[in-house]
Structure formats: structure tokens, C-alpha cells
User: Fold this.
Amino acid sequence: MKAITIWQPYASLVAENFKKIETRGWQTHYRGQIAIHAAKKPFKEVDFLDNLLELQSASNQKPDEAQAVIDWYHCNRKSGFQTSAIIAVAYLEAVIPTEDLTDEGLLCPVEYALGGYGPERFGWCFSNIKKLENPVITNGKQGIWNLSPSLTVETLKQLLSRDAQIVAQSLFGLGKNSSVTFQTPSRITPRTSIAINELINAGMVVRDMDWHESIRVFKGTENIGNPRRDFKPVEENEDFAIVKGDAA
Assistant:
């Protein structure tokens, strides 16, 4: 799973859905699910003063939205912001030059106040942002970086419904090299079908053609809560045993 490290309080602003565009001096061709990691760098209030002034200006146009961010900031700044941890998962939808965002009027005043929209920069546009209930502690890196398999599981399992967790537990308990082949699609209950689709969308299992006939489990994972060190996504390792039966 890909990740990006962001300084506080901007990482938390993303996690809280106040900030949906992260501005950078470089772009990426990657699109897809991405973990939001709060940097180790301690938060200094002086670094956020310019943003507060911009928010005050934005309150003339978007008073409710701007005040919500200001209130949230003052409520949380004394207790401090989480650092050195994955705090949310989002979908990187697009990367757009900041000139295009500002020239075409695509930015709301609050979003503008929370970013750096100077020339030759890029807006990384996030959607489907989900805050983690339990931050996943780890050091960050520069650029886009890859989470380890164990951190990926620890992060993604927090986003699963209870049904999906139960199905994942059953699937990952099948063994080190596992696929599941369903004997007939009719044996899959709607509830199980929804749970499996959730696992597929989370990238924790993949499908072969029609997933009603066969799905593949990540290699080397015997338990969703205790991934092995040799855990690899199936697209990187294709040798799987076939297990007959219904995962439900």
C-alpha cells in the first residue's frame, strides 16, 4: 500500500476531511488508495499562523466552513496532534497543477487557505477519506513510499465491517498459499458476497475472472491480525493451492 507523509496539523486536517487537497512541489502518476501518515516533526503553532490569517479572510465568503476549521484547530492544538503514525486512508483521485486549480476557480476559499498554491506546484486531490480510529505507529519517508505488508494489514483491517473481518479471518486462516474456489455461486449468501466485495475493494484479496468461482488470498497470511514476514500480494506470487468449498 502506498503512503505519503504530511506535517501536522495538515495531516489531521486531511483525516478530518477539512483539507482534501495536499499541495506539493512535485507530481506523481500514481492514482489509487493511499495512507495518510503524520510526520515525526513536532507541530509548531507559528508555522500555522499564515493559514489562520487566510482562514479569517475565507470566513467572509464561507463563514461556517472556515469557523469549523478554526474551532477544531483551537480545540486540538493544546492537546497536541498525533505524529509518526498513519492516521487515515484516502483515494488519490488526481494531481493538478496549482495554476489550473486557481485559474479555473476550482478552489473554495477554505481549501485555498490550507495549502500552498504558488506557481509550479501541484494539488494532490483526495477523495473517500477515512480516519483511523487507532493510529498505526511508524516512521515516515520522503516522497510516496510503500507500507510494509504487516502495516498494510494493520491499517486496512480498521476500515472493514464486522462481516468482512469475519470472512477475512476465515480466508486468511486457510494457510500460507491459499485460494478459495466456490463450488456454485448460489452457495454464497448475499451477506458473504457483500463482505467479499469489501475485501476486494480494500485490496486484501483479488479475484480470478468471476470471483464467485475463485478468489485468491494474499500469500503468507495465516491470520489477519498476525501477518507473516513473507506476506506478499498475489500479483507478485502466483503459486497457490486450491481449497474447495464455501468461505462462508
